Amino acid sequence: MSIILETKDVHLSYGKKEALHGVNLDFEDNSITALIGPSGCGKSTFLRCLNRMNDLIPNTTITGSFQFHEREIYASTIDLVELRKQIGMVFQQPNPFPFSVYENVTYGLKLTGHSDRKFLDEQVERALKQAAVWDEVKDNLNKSAMSFSGGQQQRICIARLLAVQPDIILLDEPTSALDPISSAQIETTLLELKKEYCIIIVTHNLQQASRIADRTAFMLNGNLVEYDNTSKMFTNPEKQDTSDYLNGKFG
Ligand SMILES: Nc1ncnc2c1ncn2[C@@H]1O[C@H](COP(=O)(O)OP(=O)(O)OP(=O)(O)O)[C@@H](O)[C@H]1O
């Protein structure tokens, strides 16, 4: 496996308050990495750095290096639309646009100038199949995406992102608003998707991290405490803080 994204010494401040204190992490292609840690430790903040979503928050200062395919994500020459196409994000609450399933999935493709109906049809089918929701929506592609269940909406959002063929998929607690069956379907989908993508997931659910993640990063108070193979970290962590967190002593 190869490293597709590497961060070094990442500091982020909201105004005067520093929320990340020098985070070094690397992410492999064709794998799932979980970011875990108690509420407020900086998981979402770090995740948002990876496709520059924090740029949208006023008074945010970010330093450090983010090498993606040997390019610096924070270089002034980076095209943000292109970056967010390559590094897409799925959020906690499913957020389909108030359009049909078809229009949701073709949205990014149309933005980048694709209009050929046959091509769009093929991409819609491919993306919805990859997101494991094709069978459930294929007869209703013109129906509003918002009329489907939460779990189906989340998989439609994943399909919307897959349509533009990203390299990295960022997910911020993608199943915390879903029922157990829908969550399990998303986990199965992610395990399939990792064959083709680098997946980085923030989760509060330790069982979920242990089920699906190849590697897990444990964060605490804006610091990276430990980063290791998930099975190693969950059975034999190096640091006492990691052990205490995994054993439910805090968090
Ligand atoms: N937009 C913001 N403005 C100011 N401070 C923020 C902002 N977003 C997050 N913070 C602060 O940064 C710190 C890290 O928050 P962050 O949401 O990244 O943590 P988290 O580990 O993802 O938490 P949770 O698991 O509760 O989502 C917290 O102290 C939080 O209050």
UniProtKB/TrEMBL annotation:
Q: Establish whether keyword ATP-binding is in the entry.
A: yes
Record Pfam families: ABC_tran (PF00005)
Q: A GO molecular function for this record?
A: ATP binding
UniProt keyword ATP-binding, yes or no: yes
Coiled-coil features, chain-numbered ranges: none
- What region holds the ABC transporter domain? 5-246
Family annotation (Gene3D superfamilies) = P-loop containing nucleotide triphosphate hydrolases (3.40.50.300)
The cross-references to InterPro entries, in alphabetical order and at most eight, read: AAA+_ATPase (IPR003593), ABC_transporter-like_ATP-bd (IPR003439), ABC_transporter-like_CS (IPR017871), P-loop_NTPase (IPR027417), PstB-like (IPR005670)
Q: Which UniProt keywords apply?
A: ATP-binding, Nucleotide-binding, Phosphate transport, Transport
PROSITE patterns given for it?
A: ABC_TRANSPORTER_1 (PS00211), ABC_TRANSPORTER_2 (PS50893)
Protein name as catalogued: Phosphate ABC transporter ATP-binding protein
